[in-house]
Amino acid sequence: MKCRILARFAVASALLFGMISPTFAQSGRPRPLPPTNNPQSESPQPSQTPKAPGNKPASAKEETQKTGGDDVATIKLDTTLVTIPVSVLDRNGRYIPHLNKNDFRVFEDGVEQEVSDLGTVETPFHVVLLLDTSPSQAFNLRDIQEAAIAFVDQLHANDRVMVVSFDRDVHIDSEFTSDRARLRRAIYGTYTDNSTKLYDAVDLVITERLNRIDGRKAIVLFTDGVDTASRIASARSTVARVEESGVLVYPIQYNTANDMGPFGRGGGGGRGRGRGGIMIPWPSPRFPGGNGNDEYSRASEYLRDLAERSGARLHQADTLGNLSNAFSMIAEELRYQYSLSYYPTNAARDGSYRRVRVTVNQSNAVVRAREGYRASSDEHPQPVSAPARPRR
Q1: Which distant-in-sequence residues (6+ apart) come within 8 Å of 53 by Cβ?
Q2: Is residue 72 part of a domain?
């Protein structure tokens, strides 16, 4: 009897152990969930190789990303796309709108190219408003601010504007935005400080902002053209940057040569008015005791090169009326500016200068475009720029 009871106990124990052992074998491992038929339960994986849009070859890559503020722009990566800004006028000087890419022909070094894309007058512009706020400015700062705001108000409502000012530093006052209230606050927030990093400022906006954006883009540069503090870029390097980019550069030059003193810009003891109206000393080691007019001659040549190499025009602003008129003329031209793009048949990355000629199949039309561009080079140094410091 006792043996029978022990045998039954052994069988029951064996059965109980067989039921429990799978549970122990899976300890620490979550039970897999059954597959679901809901397609929204899985997040799609991003494509590793973006498709080339339109007529662009597979090597041309694009992505969409925020450019700061509230706006989205097309960012271009690893592409040989060449962009030529073009204005078309009739014999009376009136701009001709509503052209399409079939109306244009483009030649590079005498060889006709296939037009890949055309940014029309309806395509939004990206415009950098680049303001020299060094003590040498010939106008009251409030006058400059009012003229700049009037300029912004004359652009199309969907154009995106970035406000950058420079003195001893480069200040990003506003990233690209079409919010006019935000732009007004940024412009009114500029103030005067010591020295002038003109070259570093031009380098920054091209290499760190505009070179990454496809489409119509321009810099409106208000300055006397004299640099006193740049440490990274130079006149030559920034002109080369412009030649390689599709950026229009419209300098508005004011002349402060008569204010020159023995210590450089600022004249009469070499002082400028800083933030809050405080007078600050301003010696200039670039030409102590030298001829300031020579420096301003070089400044004028530099600004003229920026304009001509980009296909834009240099404007003079000796009076407040001239300043407002210059801003108005630039705004009008930007409203009717085309942006013609193509992939050159000469794909060599040799840093050579390529001559470009653009024609249009409109009788009695005058085409204004840049005369050429500088091809990128594999040996070209990586873009570097002065640190951008937001204003407090």
Answers
A1: 62
A2: no
Name 86's bridge partners. Answer: 338, 369
Q: Are residues 307 and 352 in the same domain?
A: no
In a domain, 43, yes or no: no
* CA atoms of 210 and 218, how far apart (whole Å): 8
Residue 35 lies in a domain: no
| Claim to verify: residue 260 and residue 175 sit in the same structural domain | yes
CA pair distance 91, 109, nearest whole angstrom: 27
Model-level pTM greater than 0.85? no
Residue with tokens 């321009």: 218
State the virtual CA torsion across 374, 376, 378, 381 in degrees, nearest 10: 80
> Same domain for 140 and 247?
yes
Residue 47 within a domain? no
Instruction: Tell me: do 330 and 342 sit in the same domain.
Output: no
| Angle of helix 141-154 versus helix 320-335 axis, rounded to 10 | 20
| Residue 170, domain CATH | 3.40.50.410
Provide the pLDDT confidence category of residue 22 given band limits of 50, 70 and 90: very low
Region 176-195: mean pLDDT is: 94
pLDDT of 243-276, one tens digit each? 988 899 999 998 766 554 443 444 333 333 333 3
Identify the domain containing residue 266 by its residue range. 125-335
Number of domains the chain contains = 2
d(Cα 4, Cα 88) in Å, to the nearest integer? 110
Separation CA 158–CA 202 (nearest Å): 24
Asked if residue 217 and residue 347 are part of one domain, the reply reads no
Mean pLDDT of the chain, nearest integer: 75
Task: Identify the sign of the CA torsion 356, 360, 363, 368.
Answer: negative
Token pair recorded at residue 21: 């052992």
Q: Cβ atoms within 10 A of the Cβ of 58, count?
A: 9
CB 101 within 8 A of CB 115: yes
Q: 340 burial class (0-12, 13-18, 19+ CB within 10 angstroms)?
A: buried
Least confident of 126-135, 257-266, 290-299, 308-317: 257-266
**φ and ψ of 361, to 5 deg:** -90, 50
d(C-alpha 338, C-alpha 103), whole Å: 12
In this structure, are residues 213 and 245 in contact, taking their beta carbons and an 8 Å threshold?
no
Last residue of a domain, one of 284, 307, 335: 335
Residue 359 CB-density burial (10 A; 0-12 exposed, 13-18 middle, 19+ buried)? middle
